[in-house]
Design a protein that fits this description.
With 290 residues, the protein is α/β, with parallel strands linked by helices. The protein is built from six helices and 15 strands. Helices cover 28% and strands 21% of the residues. The structure holds zinc ion (ZN).
């Protein structure tokens, strides 16, 4: 596909079908990788931004067809590859795309928790507040730990479009996997994003989300409602393991998702422990007060 084809029609609300290429803003194309699943939705969103030499945000998994689509949209002219974090559905495409284009890979170093893309090796480590500039855009780098400790979001300074990676996603709730993931930091990062001039959200999975502040408010409220269920379940018992309260806390979530939800339950429990509202003794968690 070349520029000038049907994909040049700007459609912010185009649905993110697996494998689709859509222009969602003047200088933004979205290419959905062929890795659909209950956790990734239709697949990982790779964004191509800029008007001259292009910037690729989250190259996605290693997949030849996906890579060819990125090369088609960019005409092979890629200057920079930005990774929001190094989970295996976001960054493995960086190495082969760099080989084809000579682009420089940007990101924060990966933690060693066994859940990261082993091929991930950023050429440039950016700082909080750094900017990535092109002729027509300026992206500021925001360190947003929570989903992953090395997670960043990228905010377009002129249009308020926030590339959220996995910090916010459309259609499902972000999994927080301790110890690298932290519910306390996740909520802190959300509250910080709420203070910034964010308009729309371009998530790592799913469709564009309008009214970013309202979505952030909704997610914070949802997380605190879940936390209240954890508190209620622990309060009602002298002491409990997470497996004993999992079904009660996630009674609105399909059973097949409970093994994944258990990670977020652990993240909630650790947050309560950090706030000294809960005590942990091995596998047992005890409510100790407000
Ligand atoms: Zn992730």
């Amino acid at each position: 596909m070349r520029f000038g084809g049907p994909s040049d029609t700007i459609d912010p609300h185009a649905s993110p079908e697996t494998g689709s290429i859509r222009r969602i803003a003047r200088h933004v194309w979205r290419i959905v990788a062929p890795n659909p699943s209950p956790l990734t939705g239709p697949g990982t969103n790779t964004y191509v931004v800029g008007s001259g030499r292009r910037i690729v945000i989250d190259p996605g998994p290693t997949d030849e067809v996906h890579r060819e689509r990125i090369l088609a949209v960019t005409g092979g002219r890629v200057d920079r590859i930005l990774c929001t974090h190094s989970h295996p559905d976001h960054s493995p495409g960086a190495v082969p795309l760099k080989e084809r284009t000579g682009a420089v890979v940007f990101g924060l170093p990966a933690p060693d928790d066994g859940h990261q893309d082993p091929t991930y090796a950023p050429d440039e480590v950016w700082r909080e507040g750094a900017t990535i500039e092109d002729d027509d855009l300026r992206l500021s780098v925001l360190h947003t730990p929570g989903h992953a400790s090395n997670h960043v979001c990228l905010l377009g300074e002129t249009d308020g479009l926030l590339f959220t990676g996995d910090h916010l996603m459309s259609g499902s709730t972000v999994v927080i996997l301790p110890p690298d993931g932290s519910m306390r930091l996740y909520l802190e990062s959300l509250r910080r994003l709420r203070t910034l001039p964010v308009r729309d959200l371009a998530p790592g999975h799913g469709s564009l989300i309008n009214q970013g502040h309202a979505e952030i408010d909704r997610v914070v409220k949802h997380r605190l409602a879940r936390e209240a269920k954890v508190v209620a379940a622990l309060r009602a018992r002298a002491a409990a393991t997470l497996d004993e309260i999992l079904a009660e806390v996630y009674d609105d979530v399909p059973r097949f998702m409970h093994p994944v939800a258990r990670f977020s339950l652990l993240a909630h429990a650790i947050k309560l422990e950090e706030e000294r509202r809960v005590k942990r003794d091995g596998e047992t968690w005890t409510w100790v007060g407000e």
